[in-house]
Amino acid sequence: MNPALFLGVIALIIGGSLRYWINRRKFYRRSPMGVEGFSSYEKAVVITFFERVIKWISFIIIVFGLFMLWSYSNHTKNKNLIIQKEIKK
Q1: Which residues pair with 30 in a beta bridge?
Q2: Could you tell me the pLDDT band of residue 58, with boundaries at 50, 70 and 90?
Q3: What residue ranges are annotated as transmembrane (predicted)?
Q4: Dmax (CA) of the chain
């Protein structure tokens, strides 16, 4: 298996899992009225900052994964074009 394909799929799985984990935590922290409940102001600030940073990291990982899949796709297309040109000669 090509390393670009492997890294792309793994990056998408990791990035998607991180986003799912953060969104799930936010969902279960909400009350029936839709308000997030924290035991203190400090916890609210630290947790929301941590979640925001993790969401940005997961976004970067997902973009990296998409770039790797795009790179793999271009590599295989170019390889097929070269093979077709050699066959025509």
Answers
A1: 36
A2: very high
A3: 6-22, 53-72
A4: 74
Contact, 72 vs 4, CB < 8 A? yes
* Domain-embedded: residue 10: yes
Please give the Cα distance from 25 to 48 (Å, whole number). 11
Residue 61 corresponds to which tokens in the numbers above? Answer: 């990982």
For tokens 């279960």, the residue is: 28
CA distances from 20 to 36, 58, 63, 75, 86 (A): 17, 10, 16, 31, 47
Which structural domain, as residue segments, surrounds residue 8? 3-84
- 21, part of any domain: yes
Q: Closest Cα to residue 54, out of 21, 87, 10, 28?
A: 21
Distance separating alpha carbons of residues 35 and 83, to the nearest angstrom: 60
CA distance 58 to 45: 20
